[in-house]
Amino acid sequence: MSEAIDPKHFRSVMGQVPTCVTVVTAIVDDAPVAMVIGSFVSISLDPPLAGFFCTTTSYTWQQLRTADALGVNVLSAEQVEVSNACMRELADRFDGLEWTVVDGAPKFAGTSAWIALSLREVIPAGDHELALCAVRRLEAPEPAASPLIFQGGTYRQLSSDQT
Ligand SMILES: Cc1cc2nc3c(=O)[nH]c(=O)nc-3n(C[C@H](O)[C@H](O)[C@H](O)COP(=O)(O)O)c2cc1C
After folding, report:
1. Residue 69 near residue 100 (C-beta atoms within 8 A)
2. Which of 108, 117, 109 is nearest to 70 (CA)?
C-alpha cells in the first residue's frame, strides 16, 4: 500500500527531476496561442508519436486542443525570456518575440528543436491529461544548440559533456 504523499514534498522532490523547456503553440481563431510545457516527451518511433501533459484547469490547453496543428518549440539556453514571455497573460505572450508560422503553428526564432504535431488522443492522467500526438515533421539546427533546462525551481543550462 502506498503512503499518503504530502503535495509540498511531491513538488519538492519531483522538482529535482530536470526537464527541457518547450513552448507548445497553435493558431486558434486566427490568433497565436502559446503554453510553456516541461513535460514534452518522445514516445514512439513507429508510428512517430510524442506528447506532453497539461493540467486540466489550464485555459490555454483548452485552446490548444482545438487546433489541427501544434508546434513544439524546444527552447535553447539563450531563450529564458521566451519562456518568461509565454508565462504572461494569454494575449501578451507573443509581444516582442520573433516568430513565424511553420507547419501551421507559431515557431520562434533560435530554438534548439522544432516538432510539428497533430493531436491524436487525450488520455486522462489524474489532475493532468496526456496529449498523445502524431509527429508530422521535425527539425533541429546544425550545429546543435544547447537546450534550456528547468530543475530545482530554476532555469539552468548544461555545463559540459561527459563520456
Ligand atoms: C518551466 C515550466 C514548465 C511547465 N510545464 C508545464 C507542463 O508540462 N504542463 C502544464 O500543464 N503546465 C506547465 N507549466 C505551467 C504552464 O505553462 C502555465 O501554467 C500555463 O501557461 C498557464 O496558462 P493558463 O493558466 O492560461 O492556462 C510549466 C511552466 C514552466 C515555467
Report:
1. no
2. 117
- High-pLDDT (> 70) share of the chain, %: 99
Q: Is 118 in the pocket of ligand 1 (CB under 6 A)?
A: no
Contact 121, 89 (CB under 8 A): no
Q: How far is the CA of 35 from the centre of ligand 1 (A)?
A: 6
Longest Cα–Cα distance in the chain: 51
Å from CA of 94 to ligand 1 middle: 16
> Is residue 38 in contact with ligand 1, taking CB distance under 6 Å?
yes
Write out the H or E segment, with its range, that includes residue 139. Answer: strand 128-139
CA 162–ligand 1 middle distance (angstroms): 31
Query: Which SS3 state, helix, strand or coil, does residue 81 take?
Result: helix
pTM over 0.90: yes
At 29-48, the pLDDT tens digits run 999 999 999 999 999 999 99
